[in-house]
Backbone:
């Protein structure tokens, strides 16, 4: 700064408790300081005593509650009251993960979410008819704090070129890994009108309304052989008939 005859040294710091978060510290030097003195001072820089703002909790500067708060979605298949469901959501360490590609593997999901904490298990969502992945999963952590880290830092990231979304879940129970759509997959894939190559193309209902069959995918430039008529079939000689007659002859 030419007005104050001082210059500033700005450097980032990674926190030990939250490795995905960093903050900045500032050290001020007179503009007349020699390069050697500046280098020596930077080397000895004690970040815990220079400025109190460098050791203040990051929650004062960043509102992280919004990223971990409960969404408005409530599972209509939950067996219990809404208050009970909310209590379980507030203490849960399980996340629902949506908008996955059908071909995303469990190993990829584990690698991504393990950056937020220790993953206990992953349950892949399956088509209830085909028993194939249908674009969602449940990720369970050992602790609530690790699940909160995933909500803060993993939600909205890209996996297989798709923006995934996470939400709190009450906890996995057997049977919840299957899609609830009429066609076996997720309900959202029943009525989708856009073409999504990562989730099976068009929506299942749309495909049914379009009358999906082999004729829809026939190349008009390729001639189709005419079907055989009853007359031509009757006129065609039978290869088995002469053989039968020969056998019957004395």
Residues:
């Amino acid at each position: 700064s030419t007005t104050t005859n001082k210059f500033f040294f700005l450097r980032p710091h990674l926190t030990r408790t939250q490795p995905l978060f960093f903050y900045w510290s500032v050290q001020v030097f007179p503009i007349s300081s020699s390069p050697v003195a500046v280098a020596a001072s930077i080397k000895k820089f004690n970040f815990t005593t220079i400025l109190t703002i460098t050791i203040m909790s990051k929650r004062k500067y960043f509102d992280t509650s919004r990223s971990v708060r409960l969404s408005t979605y409530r599972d209509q298949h939950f067996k219990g009251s809404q208050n009970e469901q909310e209590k379980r959501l507030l203490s849960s360490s399980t996340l629902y993960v949506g908008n996955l590609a059908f071909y995303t593997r469990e190993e990829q999901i584990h690698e991504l979410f393990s950056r937020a904490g220790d993953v206990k298990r992953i349950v892949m969502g399956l088509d209830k008819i085909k028993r194939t992945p249908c674009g969602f999963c449940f990720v369970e952590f050992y602790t609530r704090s690790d699940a909160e880290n995933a909500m803060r830092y993993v939600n909205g990231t890209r996996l297989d070129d798709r923006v995934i979304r996470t939400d709190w879940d009450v906890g996995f129970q057997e049977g919840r890994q299957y899609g609830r759509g009429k066609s076996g997959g997720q309900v959202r894939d029943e009525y989708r009108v856009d073409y999504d190559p990562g989730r099976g193309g068009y929506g299942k209902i749309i495909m049914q309304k379009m009358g999906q069959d082999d004729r829809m995918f026939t190349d008009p430039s390729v001639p189709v052989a005419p079907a055989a008529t009853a007359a031509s079939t009757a006129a065609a000689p039978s290869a088995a008939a002469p053989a039968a007659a020969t056998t019957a002859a004395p």
Remarks:
- Helices lie at 35-43, 65-68, 82-91, 106-113, 144-153, 204-209, 230-235, 240-248.
- Residues 13-23, 47-64, 229-236, 243-250 have pLDDT under 50 and may be disordered.
- The longest strand covers residues 6-14.
- The first helix runs from residue 35 to 43.
